[in-house]
Specification:
With about 475 residues, the protein is α/β, with parallel strands linked by helices. About 35% of the residues lie in helices and about 20% in strands. β11 and β12 (about 215) form a beta hairpin. The longest helix has 24 residues, at about 345-365. The termini are far apart.
């Protein structure tokens, strides 16, 4: 049918993959770091030009764009940025997020309104911060875009129509995944005046064309594009092991969670992607490794010398407080120490099991709302640790798959471009990710006993943390 390209613009680099639109086979690559400040949108364009400088877009018929999520580019009435971009991980924004939660009447009010409780990452919180910290710049804001929206607009030579997609819109804090509509009053509540928002178009709907005639698809955020590139479907969940952790799953409907524990995202296919976040994941492994005088790989080797249950030791991994369960001011704790258990290998095992059990709590929140999980994709460098791979299937009670390294975000963007190009009702059938598969097998009973012991200690230490 043709050749399509997927563009990933992360916080640090631009990556391009060029694929056959029918088979999904990757035929070309491109890569370039952002040459200037990460919050400078022009730097994103410069790295895109460099990544495509070897003819990556020759013969390409359509381009899909995926970019870093929850950044904010605030534009004036002439379409020019009023300041540098506010990126997703900007910690200055957290007080503004808390202020905004109170302004609407608390977490429950936000969860009911848009399925999202404002945090530092959300664009709605960045608007609040801008109004409070830089009122002169805020007064000039006429329109707001996110990085993928802005790049699509630039590729099409800045047309009058600005677009976004459901996935990106669902992370703003002023678009409801359940109602599939904006709440512009919430953007106004944050900024102090009305502001124009990009049109939300469907997953297979083209955003437009470049001046050279290349089709540009709707685009989406990094998480949604990666899930599309992996080939996840209903019954699949994706767990990301960064310093913090997250679990999301493909689901047929948005989940309204009054507590705000579940964030109701949309995906890149027309489905939904409810997500639960934990504040602690691989930081637990790094901290334990430092305590034991080793690195994370060494910690994994130590943990494998122990046995399930770590000789009775249970680590509650709340080193940075915790979001799931909602214990922002608590600390981690180690329980069940006996003389025979006070060995490096058992502490290492308790750290691995504690991290995974904390993430299992997040997974159980989704399961408790009827989300089916038959297969769990495990992402991040820690997913390749043998101790994690050995313990995870039994603790999660499901098959765990670890994808082999590939440019899944860019591949997902390319797959969306192929979908927009062919105009079909369903996305093209590209091969799913190549994965290593780990089944619970005979270790399931032992893993579930470890999990139950963790839950018992958690409830004794923090009774009612998950409510009734």
């Amino acid at each position: 049918m043709g050749i399509v390209a997927g563009l990933e613009s992360s916080a640090e680099y631009t990556r391009i993959v060029v694929c056959d639109a029918d088979s999904g086979a990757v035929v070309k690559h491109g890569h370039a770091d952002h040459p200037a400040e990460r919050d400078d949108p022009q730097s994103w364009l410069m790295s895109l030009g460099k990544a495509a400088s070897s003819g990556q877009f020759s013969d390409v018929e359509a381009i899909g764009v995926a970019a870093q999520q929850q950044g904010l580019i605030a534009l004036d009435s002439a379409g020019n940025p009023v300041r540098s971009a506010l990126l997703g991980n900007d910690r200055r924004i957290q007080p503004a997020a808390a202020d905004l939660v109170d302004a609407l009447g608390g977490r429950h009010a936000w969860a009911e309104a848009v399925g999202t409780v404002p945090e530092a990452g959300h664009p709605v919180s960045k608007l609040r911060w801008l109004a409070r910290a830089e009122p002169q710049a805020a007064a000039s804001v006429a329109e707001v875009l996110q990085p993928h929206d802005w790049l699509v607009w630039q590729l099409m030579a800045r047309p009058a129509r600005r677009t976004t997609d459901r996935g990106e819109a669902s992370g703003t804090g002023y678009w409801s995944a359940a109602l599939e509509t904006y709440r512009p009053d919430l953007a106004e509540l944050a900024l102090g005046h009305q502001v124009a928002l990009p049109e939300v178009i469907g997953p297979a709907e083209p955003a437009g064309r470049t001046p050279e005639g290349l089709l540009i698809s709707a685009g989406t955020g990094e998480t949604m594009a990666a899930a599309f590139g992996l080939g996840v479907d209903v019954g699949d969940a994706v767990m990301s092991l960064g310093a913090s952790g997250s679990v999301c799953a493909v689901h047929h409907e948005a989940l309204n969670d009054p507590s705000g524990t579940i964030t109701s995202y949309a995906d890149a296919t027309g489905m939904h992607m409810p997500a639960v976040r934990t504040l602690n994941a691989t930081r637990v492994l790094r901290g334990a490794a430092e305590m034991l005088g080793t690195d994370v790989k060494g910690l994994s080797e130590l943990a494998q010398r122990s046995t399930p249950g770590a000789y009775g030791m249970v680590l509650l991994p709340y080193l940075e407080g915790e979001q799931t369960p909602n214990l922002p001011h608590t600390a981690g704790s180690l329980h069940g120490m006996r003389r025979e258990s006070m060995k490096p290998e058992h502490l290492a095992r308790a750290a691995v099991e504690g991290m995974l059990c904390g993430l299992a709590d997040a997974l159980d929140v989704l399961r408790g709302r009827g989300v089916q999980v038959r297969r769990l994709f495990l992402l991040g460098p820690a997913a390749n640790l043998p101790a994690v791979q050995a313990a995870a299937p039994a603790l999660f009670g499901t098959q765990v798959v670890v994808p082999r390294p590939a440019d899944y975000t860019a591949i997902g963007a390319a797959r969306q471009a192929a979908w927009a190009l062919n105009g079909a009702a369903q996305p093209p059938r590209w091969p799913t990710a190549e994965c290593e598969v780990f089944d619970p097998g005979e270790s399931l009973a032992a893993g579930q006993a470890v999990r139950q012991q963790y839950v018992t200690v958690r409830e004794e230490t923090h009774p009612g943390a998950f409510g009734a």
